Amino acid sequence: MAGEPTDLTKMTAAELAAVMAAGATSAVEVTKAHLSRIAEVDGRVRAFLHVAPDVALNAAAAVDARRARGEPLGPLAGVPLALKDVLTTTDMPTTCGSKILEGWVPPYDATVTQRLRQAGLILLGKTNMDEFAMGSSTENSAYGASHNPWDLSRVPGGSSGGSAAAVAAYEAPLAIGTDTGGSIRQPASVCGIVGTKPTYGGSSRYGLVAFASSLDTPGPLARTVLDAALLHEAMSGHDPADSTSVNAPVPPVVAAARQPDVNGLRVGVVAEFSGAGYQAGVLARFGEAVELLESLGAKVVEVSCPHFTYALPVYYLVAPSECSSNLARFDAMRYGMRVGDDGTASADEVMSLTRARGFGPEVKRRIMLGTYALSSGYYDAYYGKAQQVRTLICQDFDAAFEQVDVLVSPTTPTTAFPLGERADDPIAMYLADLCTIPADLAGNAAISVPCGLAPEDGLPVGLQIMAPVLADDRVYRVGAAVQAALEQRWHGPLLARATGLAWPDGGAR
């Protein structure tokens, strides 16, 4: 069947690591299989902005050589990975999905990039994204939208849509995304995979091109909860180069994913995340997931977090304000695009012309919103007030976690929407992150795991699990329990139903 992945590309990261450790295959062969898969299908999925075969194969050969010498290797050594194009890489371009950085090759690796290389993961290339991580559909990329492998006429979510699509299309078993308002969990949900936002500061932001510095969080995308936990552990830990990095041990996420027992766990259903605006099939699958947790021994109660209803407007004051400040560095003077430099234009004119051509409409919109919110006479009324309400949202979480161990909700109000449907309606687009934003504002850990297919369209639905700061292991414990129980019910992984993918040539979905 067209679009069918090979045996090696069907394997999870844990399975690949095991067969390589046993000598049944090599890192080079695994890498070649995934590069072939990318060559076969990415012309239609468009998950990648840059593929680096030489870089990947050289890294794979180095892992094989180390294994042959008997050197100790990390648990994911030789496993391929797709990296969101917002993390710096010395051997590949870093564009952030923007024309203003087209072709820019950074002089240093991000800390996350360094840690992945040191762990022996194989970087296949850089994935597509909404420009500077601003969007929920990947349609804001200056290089064209990515497509959802379940249905190529639908969005893969955003801003980490390329990373999610690569994993769902079996182009990579693992990927890195970043989550500012839901940009890992929302694409994971609509692509039917697992995506985690670690505790803020649990993964380093050094070398992550900043959108909103108090929110941006790198995290893993995978097809299983265990794979996500293994990647989470490999990429995380204190980083002295990042002033916001948490100086604390990485929570025992892998152990939690391997012991998915929720008996006696207190689970709170967020009352504010239901009702009008939610797709009926999403609520149905979410309700079944809650019933499943109860059947596994969890104690389920409804919890009210009243200020969560203000999270969306708070986010769209805080994040644009921070982006207005962060993106001021793109001034055409030091790196990236430069327009109008003919010897007659002033520096201000060159800067203005470059930004006008280099930034896309959504980035300009958010810069203007943020600049206005920070301007004299408006700061207290807008940005200052938003930060006060942000504190109330944090207090809602604190109060909830006095009653329960984790909170659950749908990850997104709807399944993947058609490409172009919300492109001219920013408010409708922003609503895709309705459920995910509170955890970003508070810095909590959160995960999205698949919990079934919506009956209206046969597309994936995600279950969001939220835990307190530095209790990341709880989201893996619950997520692994849900995934294991549902796989028994489905007689196999949910994503196996999308193996053939929704190709225009008639491949099965």
- Which strand order do you get reading across the main beta sheet? 1-3-2-4-6-5-10-11-9-7-8
* Overall 3D form: globular
Show unreliable segments.
503-509
- The H-and-E topology, N to C, reads as HHHEHEHEHEHEEHHEHEHHHHEHHEEH
Computed CA radius of gyration, to the nearest angstrom: 21 Å
| Mean pLDDT figure | 94
Kindly give the count of domains: 1
Helix content: 25-40%
User: What percent strand?
Assistant: 5-15%
Can you name the CATH architecture?
Alpha-Beta Complex
CATH class: Alpha Beta
CATH topology: Amidase signature (AS) enzymes
Question: How many β-strand stretches?
Answer: 11
**Helix/sheet category:** alpha/beta
H/I helix tally: 17
Distance between the termini: 11 Å
How does the major sheet shape up?
11 strands, mixed
| CATH superfamily annotation | Amidase signature (AS) domain
